[in-house]
Amino acid sequence: MAATSLPIGTSPAYPAGFPLPDIYDRVRRHIPAIEWPALADDVAAILALKKTRNAVILAHNYQAPEIFHTVADIVGDSLALAREAVTVDADVIVLAGVHFMAETAKLLNPGKTVLIPDMRAGCSLADSITAADVRGLREKYPGVPIVTYVNTSAAVKAESDLCCTSGNAVDVVRSLNAPRVLMIPDEFLAQNVQALVPEVEILTWAGHCEVHEQFTPADIREVRESYPGVTVIAHPECPPDVVAEADFSGSTAMMMNFVTEKRPRQVVLVTECSMGDNIAAANPDIEFIKPCNMCPHMKRMSLKNIRHALETLTHEVTVDPALTDRARLAVERMLAVKPR
Ligand code: 13P
Ligand code: SF4
Questions:
Q1: Which of 26, 65, 142, 165 is most buried, taking the most CB atoms under 10 A from its CB?
Q2: Measured in angstroms, how far is the CA atom of residue 114 from the centroid of ligand 2?
Q3: Which pLDDT score is estimated for 10?
Q4: CB distance 57 to ligand 2 below 6 Å
Q5: Protein residue whose Cα sits closest to atom 6 of ligand 2
Q6: Residue of minimum CA distance from atom 2 in ligand 1
Q7: 325 is a domain residue
């Protein structure tokens, strides 16, 4: 029987010997019971390895439910993961997310071992700009502060004044009290922030998220036609004409908070597919309607490669010591910005 057919809130009696039933309860909407024993083997191994390695797993909100709900110690948006990375009490941090997130955790924890289960987990935004590009912008726009999205390499962060995430971009721009700000490399995030901070001129770069750039205003209109009254929430990496069609826009954590506080009857999360799945378990009364798009980089993480990372202590994320201090400063300045 497919686990998805079980109504949440009931306590199904699992067959004798069914592994880790309490943990399975958290993911039974998404994982058929027949598939669970194979996954449970990895979950049990990871839980044991976390103890022997004194390790914690930081997982981004886009991780698949079998990671997000079973082995992750801390889940959140990029800002929360960066904040939590500072306070983590462990020898080893496994970052279930993408490379820039692991690099940020390493910058903030130079003495800890930071692992990413698959080194290929990149990001189209991080790939869209180099340190030389930032130096070129600095020359072209002397005196204009450079705010770099956290979705960038440490080399790019090192050339910047401070970082931002989608959760604090408006506060970061306002904190500068400057008439002009360069916000790079996400063109759409910069344009969406510009709409909220009209008093500052925001210059940007032509980087895009390959997942969010695919959404169109027509997608939103279609879904509104099919589901009258539906609430639409869009990530600010979406094009501005998509955000303009939405009822709310914010970071992945802000999207989650909006859903749990406002409790819309039907909602569309215009973002990565796992977001809806991860919130759905705790909100059985809310109907989550697609469309959504997969991030191929986030989806490189699996229970198998998390287990392998902990078994072998690979793949270790390091930062060039020549960049570390300047890149860390850009992240720390961001963390010091107070929400307004
Ligand atoms: P958040 O900071 O909102 O979690 O976004 C990170 C990201 O990569 C979104 O595509
Ligand atoms: Fe990068 Fe977009 Fe994937 Fe986020 S969703 S990691 S911005 S490619």
A1: 165
A2: 20
A3: 52
A4: no
A5: 123
A6: 78
A7: no
Q: What is the pTM of this model?
A: 0.95
Which residues 6+ apart lie within 8 Å of 29 measured at CB? 3, 4, 6, 8, 65, 277, 280, 281
26 and 117 belong to one structural domain = yes
72 lies in the same domain as 103: yes
CB-neighbour burial class of residue 89 (10 A; exposed 0-12, middle 13-18, buried 19+):
exposed
Give the model confidence (pLDDT) of 39-55 as tens digits.
Answer: 999 999 999 999 999 99
Counted domains in the chain: 3
CB < 8 Å & 24+ apart, contacts of 241-250: 241/216, 241/217, 242/215, 242/216, 242/217, 242/270, 243/188, 243/192, 243/195, 244/217, 245/217, 245/220, 245/221, 246/220, 246/270, 249/192, 250/166, 250/167
Tens of pLDDT, residues 1-26? 223 334 444 557 899 999 999 999 99
- 122 CA from centroid of ligand 2 (Å): 8
Is 298 in a helix, a strand, or coil? helix
